[in-house]
Specification:
Elements (H helix, E strand, L loop, with lengths): L8 H4 L1 H11 L13 E2 L1 H18 L9 H12 L6 E2 H13 L8 E2 L2 H9 L8 E6 L2 E7 L12 E5 L2 E2 H9 L9 H8 L4 H10 L4 E7 L6 E6 L22 H6 L2 E6 L4 E6 L8 H15 L3 E5 L8 H11 L9 E4 L14 H7 L4 E2 L5 E2 L1 H5 L13 E6 L6 H9 L5 E5 L8 E4 L4 E3 L6 E3 L3 E4 L15 E2 L4 H6 L3 H15 L1
Parallel strand pairs: 11-12, 12-16, 16-17, 17-22
Antiparallel strand pairs: 1-2, 3-20, 4-5, 6-7, 6-8, 8-9, 10-11, 13-15, 13-21, 14-15, 18-21, 19-20
Helix pairs in contact: 2-9, 4-5, 11-12, 12-15
């Protein structure tokens, strides 16, 4: 049976901070909605209480990483902040602080639809111009929208913002980012995604006319500059002729940006870029054609890039695994939900029918939970047709999440498979997901994602939130970023060429 998709991690966390950051950087309102509108303490408390009750009733992994007494304390501290009127943004910030304590990358706070529509109405708002790569308390510039800025160039190390050390800033920002077991690799990667660092910074600390930035170039002294929010110039004229129509990408071109197979005809290896397991990508056909091409060309080494793959349909991830795995396997050790109940269903905005249907395939066992026994017991077999037996290099990182961790978990340790990169953002132990309906809080319209099932992938590993470790570590360096090197891909290619010498 096909399980509906999990959303990619970029849809789990980043929309909240992107739109909130944009709001912090803009002024103006859309007719019918004002971001400055405040909700009464009674409205906020009612929505908060409903949020807590739904989690305590229906979340399958609420106490996996945070014991109940600590979660109770987090709920109490959050509610205690709701004794005054607040805007939606301020309310979401409080919810996010509580929500992160759960340690579930699939449970996230989202803005109301009215707020999203307001953000969509804004044109060219001022932006936090610097994109950063974050890892282990290190922040390095990878891109600057302001091309005239000669201080904060690619490879510049950021030491402080408004005299606050980066290490302390990151400690604060991590508290707003949900991740499996609060996995630090996942949180670092979320902050390294485009404008995410700047958007979350302005959401938490607010927008100022300029920021005092402490920075240094590699090996150089500490220096300071002032960072101005950047507004693209949309007033420039290109002539009297009518503007050229923007060419629309074909569906195949759009698909090619997410999944593709490229053959290096000179060095005779292949790179499969697999950015998602979404059910909307025609992946079964793509896999069949790709592995047929590999067989036709007698390609003996395959690099599979899973670094941006936040998951998707378990069915697609499973099909992909069967092309590579060399023996029968189970997806994991257990898949269960707490109870069969329609309580609070009226607040769900999607997947209600699917949840009801799926309930027919679960049954109560001695532990009191309702188990999806098919996935707990069924052993999937390797593909017979077009099975790939060459050397496989899986590239992983902080965005390798959800269904992608299932793929890596199954293939890791196989003789012809090498995992290269950083630990996965998804926990090695397991996660709560499979089906994730949206819940809408009635007074504020704020939404949160609620996973329906608890999935234990490997009960033998510690339940500490750590991702699946790579066989060969390949992490960022300041020099690699300055030079614009793809250090994980470079490492995989080096391994291929070195092995050929043996």
């Amino acid at each position: 049976m096909r399980i509906p998709k999990d959303s990619r991690i970029t849809k789990i966390v980043l929309p909240l901070f992107i739109i909130a950051g944009l709001l912090s950087a803009c002024s103006g309102t859309k007719k019918g909605y004002s971001p400055d509108k405040k909700f009464s303490p009674q409205q906020l408390q009612a929505d908060f209480d409903l949020y807590r009750n739904i989690l305590e009733t229906r979340h399958p992994g609420l106490y996996w990483y945070t014991p109940k007494p600590l979660m109770d304390r987090a709920f109490a501290e959050g509610r205690a902040k709701l004794n005054d009127s607040l805007t939606e943004t301020a309310f979401r910030n409080i919810l996010s602080l509580v929500n992160t304590k759960i340690g579930c990358g699939h449970t996230s706070i989202r803005s109301s639809k009215a707020y999203e529509q307001y953000i969509d109405s804004l044109k060219s708002p001022p932006r936090f111009p610097v994109y950063l790569k974050i890892w282990k308390d290190t922040a390095v510039v990878v891109y600057n929208l302001d091309k005239k800025d000669t201080a904060l160039t690619r490879g510049t190390i950021i030491e402080s913002l408004n005299n606050k050390p980066v290490t302390k800033l990151l400690d604060t920002m991590y508290q707003y980012l949900p991740a499996d077991g609060n996995n630090p690799v996942a949180k670092d990667q979320q902050l390294s995604n485009g404008a995410s660092f700047g958007n979350l910074y302005t959401t938490i600390f607010g927008k100022s006319d300029s920021l005092k930035i402490g920075y240094r170039h590699a090996g150089g002294p500490l220096q300071y500059t002032f960072l101005q929010f950047f507004k693209p110039d949309t007033s420039a004229k290109t002539g009297d002729s009518a503007p050229k129509a923007v060419s629309q990408k074909t569906r195949e071109e759009k698909l090619g940006e997410i999944r593709s197979l490229k053959i290096d005809t000179v060095r005779n290896f292949a790179v499969m870029d697999l950015g998602s397991f979404s059910p909307h990508l025609d992946l079964q056909s793509f896999f069949r054609q790709s592995f047929k091409e590999l067989k036709k060309r007698k390609i003996k080494e395959l690099i599979v890039d899973l670094r941006t793959n936040g998951g998707g349909a378990v069915h697609n991830a499973n099909i992909f695994t069967r092309y590579l795995v060399n023996k029968p396997y189970k997806l994991g050790d257990s898949l269960l939900t707490l109870r069969k109940s329609a309580r609070y269903n009226r607040y769900l905005r999607k997947d209600k029918l699917a949840l009801w249907v799926l309930g027919f395939f679960t049954h109560r066992e001695n532990d009191g939970y309702y188990h999806f026994s098919y996935y707990e017991r069924h052993r999937f077999k390797p593909k017979k047709s077009l099975h790939y037996d060459g050397a496989v290099y899986l590239l992983t990182g902080g965005f390798s999440f959800s269904a992608t961790t299932m793929v890596v978990h199954t293939l890791k340790g196989q003789e012809n498979v090498t995992v290269v990169g950083e630990p996965t953002g998804g926990a090695a132990y397991g996660h709560s997901a499979f089906m994730i309906p949206d819940v809408v809080l009635p007074h504020t319209g704020v939404r949160f994602r609620l996973p329906a099932y608890r999935f234990v992938m490997d009960k033998k590993v510690p339940r500490d939130g750590e991702g699946i470790l790579p066989d060969i570590y390949a992490g960022p360096t300041i020099e690699a970023i300055r030079l614009g090197r793809d250090y994980k891909m470079d490492k995989a290619i080096d391994l291929i060429l070195e092995k050929r010498k043996d």
